[in-house]
Design goal:
With 290 residues, this protein is an alpha/beta fold. The protein is built from nine helices and eleven strands. The relative contact order is 0.15.
Length: 290
């Protein structure tokens, strides 16, 4: 089992260089597999969209919470660490043009020595996605094409693409990601569409806000779609979430029984770096990571 830790964006400190570097270095020292950061390019004050992961329909973060660009933040963290994996959870794919995004992702991966992993989401805040210039209703079809473009640009030699949303000919994008197959692209979300996308195009699934039979159905759907696409379902990873303060080896074992390869741990939002480090230490000790 791999154990990743979510950078506590709710603490309002992920844009504080001393704080977030201290947090990430301690996570590395504790033996956590990776640090995961979130994205909102913009938050539109007074948004009407419904946040699907809370009963209130509103995300827990205040509208003015500092949320740094995830790739820039991971590049910064890469320069101050040596081993810990660097991941998004999630990067809002419709906010980005895939040609420029392919270069940014490959650059961070190359400079970090191949430590990057992406979890991609389709986004729930219509106002944000429209502010980035994308039609909210077509973001799913656009995302499928974006993933194809990323993988094409990471392959060797000139590549061309003529799709519904993106077109180019004989394009060459360097540097390449460290791994020949490119940077792992996991799919985040709670819908059947996310599970299908993970099976057809992704390297894994990170279900958000689902459990029990609904979770089992999504995982099975991912595997079925992978087989239909001629892909190996056993090669796809599953990342499930838990609270850092409550995870135990026994609870981790139960998640493994559900098929989890990785547990993404959420820490208590605090601006006190000592408290944050202590929680990481206690969690690592319970799990026997050190």
């Amino acid at each position: 089992m791999h154990y990743a830790v979510l950078a506590p964006v709710g603490a309002g400190t992920t844009a504080d260089p001393r704080w977030i570097m201290g947090f990430t270095r301690h996570a590395e020292e504790c033996g956590f597999e990776s640090v995961v950061v979130v994205e909102h390019t913009v938050v539109v004050a007074g948004y009407e969209s419904v946040y699907p992961y809370a009963g209130s329909g509103r995300m827990e973060l205040p509208d003015d919470c500092p949320i740094p660009d995830p790739l820039d933040l991971l590049a910064f963290l890469a320069g101050g660490t040596e081993r810990i994996g660097l991941a998004t959870g999630v990067l809002v794919l419709p906010n980005h043009h895939p040609v420029g995004l392919a270069k940014r992702i490959a650059t961070v991966d190359a400079l970090s020595g191949g430590r990057l992993r992406l979890c991609l989401g389709m986004g729930w805040m219509r106002e944000e996605i429209e502010a980035c210039g994308t039609d909210f209703a077509t973001r799913g079809r656009r995302a499928d094409e974006q993933i194809d473009v990323l993988r094409a640009l990471w392959a060797d030699g000139p590549t061309s693409h003529d799709g519904e949303f993106f077109r180019f000919a004989n394009a060459m994008s360097y540097p390449k990601p460290v791994r020949p197959q490119g940077v792992p692209l996991h799919i985040g979300g709670h819908s059947k569409a996310a599970a299908r996308r993970a099976g057809r195009r992704g390297d894994g699934l990170q279900p958000l806000g689902v459990a029990g039979e609904e979770l089992r159905e999504l995982v099975q759907l991912m595997r079925v779609e992978a087989e239909r696409a001629g892909r190996d379902p056993d090669a796809l990873e599953l990342t499930l979430g838990h609270l850092a303060g409550r995870i135990t080896p026994e609870k981790s074992a139960r998640l493994a029984e559900l098929g989890a390869d990785r547990v993404l741990l959420t820490t208590t939002p605090t601006s006190d770096l000592t408290e944050a480090r202590d929680e990481l230490s206690a969690c690592a000790d319970r799990l026997g990571l050190r």
